[in-house]
Fold:
Amino acid sequence: MRAITVSDHDAGVAGFSLTELPYPQAADNDVIVRVHAAGFTRGELDWPHTWIDHAGRDRTPSVPGHELSGVVAELGYGTTGLSVGQRVFGLADWARNGSLAEYTAVDARNLAPLPVDIDHTVAAALPISGLTAWQALFDHGRLAAGQTVLIHGVVGGVGSIAAQLAREVGARVIGTGRAADRAQALELGAHAFVDLDAEKLEDVGEVDVVFDVIGGDVLARSADLVRAGGTLVTIAEPPKNRPYDGRALFFLVEPDRARLADLAARVRDGRLKPVVGAVLPLAEAAAAFAPGKRIPGKTILRVAED
Structure:
């Protein structure tokens, strides 16, 4: 099968190589998925398990990518709840070969059934972005109706879903980004927008929840914006500054089959529209994620046709 592999941490996405690899083997409770569409997160090249397995052994050349949508091609021993030929989407395991391949082995618990009326390219934009947004806002941030949330990077793959989810529950949404992002942020449901290059972040005032995907100075300055009892949530890096009377936390997304199914239901009835920025073939993976290439929304690689 064809797959994108990486072997050199320092090379970044420039080290992506389109390679022929053996067909994967299904472990107990696995499924083999014929991948139709896949997502990649730039930060994963800095994750330890991109390069080593759970035992700490080098596993390069490794296949990156952890978001996928496709069709079940094979069931491992003991696998239940899914069937061969079924459309599925979800998360590939962190410490195993990922989704930028024609076939990948995935723990069945990390996959949810995909309705026939949702395109694979849309479904592949949901797993990490959708679960991250939900867990940040509601599991960790405890966002509720009538509260205000500040979402940094609001037109990105994660931020765009977070804005829609927050607006749906009745929260006031303030988004941040660059000047060119303003119109799209408002279309996504943001009530207000801050241009981080030209406007003062501190003018936002106090908010109940800050959800940060940027890190650095933006994250550090955000702690002072959290009102008493509020929460600063980030996926960029552990926060160094904490709200005076609130919580600050860094988290990693966790698989959740039930929540994936819930997100898919929202897509079906029009309550949620993942922003797919570009759809490119697997062979163009390096160019798709090259440094400096900025496309609002989630870039998806199409691996196979329906």
